[in-house]
Recover the amino acids of this structure.
């Protein structure tokens, strides 16, 4: 489902679906309403370079939506 | 430019909180977050109509939320001016308060607009709390923009019903839809 979000002009064969999901998940973690819940930039770097750490973190919905 | 805009909003809101929080509490404004602003706007619009006060229609109000946020500020100032003109005609204190409330409601709408669509973190827009986490928020929005190839200010169709939404809301809704599908299956 998350892949529907990806830019239509990109060729689906040119990117890894799992990586895109990971990056979207990280972006969701970063845009949480509570500042305390957002990761620090160093943590973002760790999440980006790892493959399975993100599974343990679930972004909360922001207040305004 | 974005900074000065949020700064102005912050001042406007803090003065509003001080002067009108009591009034809004009696009118049913439950919390400081503008989540229910359109329902509330409708209520206020009816009250203004019954007192013969000029009030921007809901359609215009919604239209304004689609505008670019810097443009929105010029709209606020033009409305402030309009209301000041009316204010001189009716020196009644009740009218005066109502007009102030309507102007501030318009500002709250624009705050909602910035919160949902901009790069600026909510706590900075509302309370002026600046930290490294504000930049993290902006980073998240930029990443989503890069992946989707759309600006966070663009409206796109979400589903077959033709409901349109902003980038962040749309992304947030995807996991929910997914969960619903899993339960359904």
């Amino acid at each position: 489902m998350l892949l529907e979000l990806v830019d239509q002009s990109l060729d689906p064969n040119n990117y890894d679906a799992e990586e895109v999901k990971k990056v979207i998940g990280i972006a969701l973690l970063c845009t949480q309403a509570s500042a305390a819940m957002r990761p620090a930039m160093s943590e973002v770097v760790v999440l980006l370079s790892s493959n399975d750490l993100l599974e343990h973190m679930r972004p909360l919905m922001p207040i305004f939506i | 430019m974005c900074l000065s805009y949020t700064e102005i909003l912050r001042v406007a809101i803090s003065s509003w909180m001080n002067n009108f929080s009591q009034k809004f509490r009696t009118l049913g404004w439950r919390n400081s977050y503008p989540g229910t602003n359109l329902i509330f706007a409708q209520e206020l619009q009816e009250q203004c109509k019954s007192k013969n006060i000029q009030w921007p229609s809901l359609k215009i109000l919604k239209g304004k939320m689609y505008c670019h946020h810097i443009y929105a500020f010029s709209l606020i100032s033009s409305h402030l001016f309009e209301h000041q003109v009316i204010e001189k005609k009716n020196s009644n204190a009740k009218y005066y308060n109502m007009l102030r409330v309507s102007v501030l409601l318009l500002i709250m709408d624009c705050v909602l607009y910035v919160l949902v669509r901009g790069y600026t973190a909510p706590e900075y827009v509302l309370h002026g709390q600046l930290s490294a986490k504000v930049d993290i928020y902006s980073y998240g929005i930029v990443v989503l923009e890069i992946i989707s190839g759309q600006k966070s200010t663009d409206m796109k169709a979400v589903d077959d019903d033709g409901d349109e939404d902003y980038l962040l809301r749309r992304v947030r809704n995807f996991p929910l839809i997914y969960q619903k599908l899993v339960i359904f299956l």
The CA atoms of residues 2 and 21 of chain A lie 7 Å apart.
